Amino acid sequence: MTFQVLAEKVFVFTQRGGMPLLGHHVHDWAAAIGSMASANWTGAVEWFSKASMDGIFGLVLGMCLIFLRVRVIEPAWSRMHGK
C-alpha cells in the first residue's frame, strides 16, 4: 500500500466522522434520554446518561487495552528481546 492510498483512506475515514462519530452518538443518545424526563430534569438526566455511557465506554476500552498489552504486546516484546 502506498502512502497516497493510505492518506486517501485516512481522509475518507475522517470525512465520514472517524472517532468523533462515537462522541456524537453518545451525545445524541443522551439527548434522547434527557428528552424523556420532565422539563426540570432534562439537563441532569442528559448529563448523567452521557457520563454513564462515557464511563462504560472508557472501562471497556481500558480492559481491551490491558488484554492487548498482556496477551499480545508483552509476549512479542519478550520474544524479540530474549527475556
* Helical content (DSSP H or I, runs of 4+): over 70%
Got a strand count?
A: 0
The low-confidence parts are none
What's the helix-strand series? HHH
- Gap between N and C termini: 34 Å
Largest sheet: none
What would you say this structure looks like, in words?
By secondary structure, the chain is mainly α. The protein has one domain. Helices cover 83% and strands 0% of the residues. It is built from 3 helices and no strands. Helix 2 (20-35) packs antiparallel against helix 3 (42-81). The model has no long low-confidence stretch (mean pLDDT 82).
Describe this structure in a few short sentences.
This protein is mainly α.
Give structural attributes:
83 residues; mainly alpha; 0% strand; elongated
Describe the secondary structure blueprint for this structure:
Blueprint: H1 3-15, H2 20-35, H3 42-81
Helix pairs in contact: 2-3
